[in-house]
Amino acid sequence: MLPTCQSSNVDNDQRTVGISEGLTRMGEVHRLLDEKGRTGLLSDPSLGVSRTVVEAASSYMSCEAGEVGYLYSGWAQSALPHKRLANDASWQVRTDYVSLLVEPGKRHTQVGDAIPVGVPYGSRARLIILYLQSEAIRTNSREVELGRSLHAWLRKLGISIGGSSMAAVRDQAERISRCRMSFQIKQGNRTGLINQNILDTAMFVDAEVDGQQGCLFVETAKLSEMFFEQLKRHPVPVEESAIKSISNNSQAIDIYCFLAYRLHALSVPTLVSWKGLMDQFGAGVSALFKFRQQFRSTLELAMAVYPEAKVEVLAKGVILYPSPPPVSPKIVSMAPRRKQEIVGYSIAGHT
Fold this sequence. Notes:
The protein has twelve helices and 15 strands. By secondary structure, the chain is of the alpha+beta class.
């Protein structure tokens, strides 16, 4: 489902010249990488391809076909904050069909009142949530190890697990473990509410950070039963190699997951208005023109790791074209999981 969508038959004179050309040639970037290589493409400024896009596309193309990750479809229609909020602040994203509310949890103290730890944010929070969901689907179990297994998975994605980087992972893991979220999803005249913690239980252990004891880290976690059931019913498969190539850009991850969820389910080109896109991806951005500029460059980055995606930017919004999914149904069916336990994914789309 998409905010402010409609089937589109847009005349050529309505197109934003230059912007639409830049996006529809993303497939051309991958072809040029095959022909010229990364260095050759970067050394030719006449092609007008940003270094960030070239690096992401090159990284993606150099990866061997790897693991399939999974996320709940609600995450493909909403997003966590990109930057840190005040520790006691809640976060809400509203679109025409989905509303996400995330409330911060609190940490118990030896004396005085409990301390709010803040809502999860940024790329590391998204990677941990993706890991939790992927492992739960692969093992068909609500219980997930976050210790050495999470470390190994982050290494595979090229994420450092030492120093400040690991401290950030610990911080986001605790925020995820303690926060409370609710998804409100509208289908026709029906509205469903998933109002529960992501996790039912978490086992915290003392960890040493910069030589200091007393920091908490989540060692094991158990997904809440309701969230796990919704995940199994509405999983969105994504390529871990794609996530690896954009792992430091939280908005690119959001847009990639949105395209992975939406494009293959379309039967006709569909226009999404700038307002609809800003509702989902631009919370916290003050002006629409700033969001449009930011979204365009980040969309190019997301498409750099999704070569089959067909998207075009216009003055009115973005046209999504029917496109193959990033993970073929054949690969999904071969993934190491109990296939009969997962309903909701098909080439026709997600429900």
